[in-house]
Every structure is written in structure tokens, then in C-alpha cells.
Amino acid sequence: MITSEQQEKVRGWFAGRLPEGLFVELVEVTVDREEITVVGRIAEPELAEDASDAAREGAAEGKISEFRERTRDDRIKVAREAERKFGRKVSWGVVCGDRRALYTHVSVPVMTRLRQPERQVLDTLIAGGVARSRSEALAWCVRLVQRNTDTWLTELRESLEKVQQVRESGPDAD
Description:
The chain has helices spanning 4-17, 53-70, 72-86, 116-127, 134-148, 150-168, and strands spanning 25-31, 35-41, 89-96, 99-103. A 4-stranded mixed sheet has the order 1-2-3-4. Helices cover 53% and strands 16% of the residues. The protein is built from 6 helices and 4 strands.
């Protein structure tokens, strides 16, 4: 697990290293064992005030696509440097208005053994058209748990950080 202090150091490194003007704002830097995800806000496309929702959606999609292509070389350069420094892959995303898009992110296989009742839950999600595979159904379940237990997961992460601090101050801290 990465501590809050380590997370802030990584965020600070990206805040200092990103090319000037790449993003309007650095929204978040998320770190786990395999990946660092950097998400920034980009300027919304300029449209008439009476533009339809469909036009706004299409313009945001176009703006995100344009940003991705235009900044590719700069992002690759920063990602390679960060991957050497932090030993993790770097993924990118943007926020444009109320739309969020992630790209180049890592999909990590997770091995697990499920008993029949758990497999039946996944198979029901597949049969219901919620997911196309057990893997996709499991990811859906994880997102559902994440959304509904955010407070509890935050408290658990904070507790784990405290455990890490206590370990680091133990007799073998030298």
C-alpha cells in the first residue's frame, strides 16, 4: 500500500514536471502498485449558449480527442521519466466540462478463486446483459462496492497508513 505522504510526493513530482500549460488544472494523481494515473482538466470547447446537449457532448469528445493527439509526445516523455523514477506505468486522463475520459490505462489481471454462489452472481450479471464476461462482471461488482462503501474504504486506508507508521518507528527502523 502507498502512504498519503508517498502519494503526495508523486503528485508533487507531476505538478512540477508536467509541461507548462498542459492542463488547466491537475485534478488528481492516483497511485497503486502497478500504475500512476494522472488526470487533468482541459478547457471546454467554446459553444453558443443555446447549444444542444448533443452538440456539447460531441464538442467535448472532439476536444478530448484533439488534446490526446496534440499532447502525445509530451505525455510520453513525462511518462517514461516517471516510469523509471517510480517503477510504475503511467496512465493519462482528462476532464472536459462534466465529461471524464481515461486512456492508456493498465488493465491488470487478478487471480481469484470463486465458489459456485459467487460465480452464479457473475453469471447472472452476464445473463442480464450487465456484463459480457465474468471478468467484466467482477469489475462491475468492485465498482459497485467502491461507490457504496467509499467512507468505509477511506477509514480502512487511513488505518493501514497508521499501521505502516507504527512499523516504521519500530526497533528495526534503522
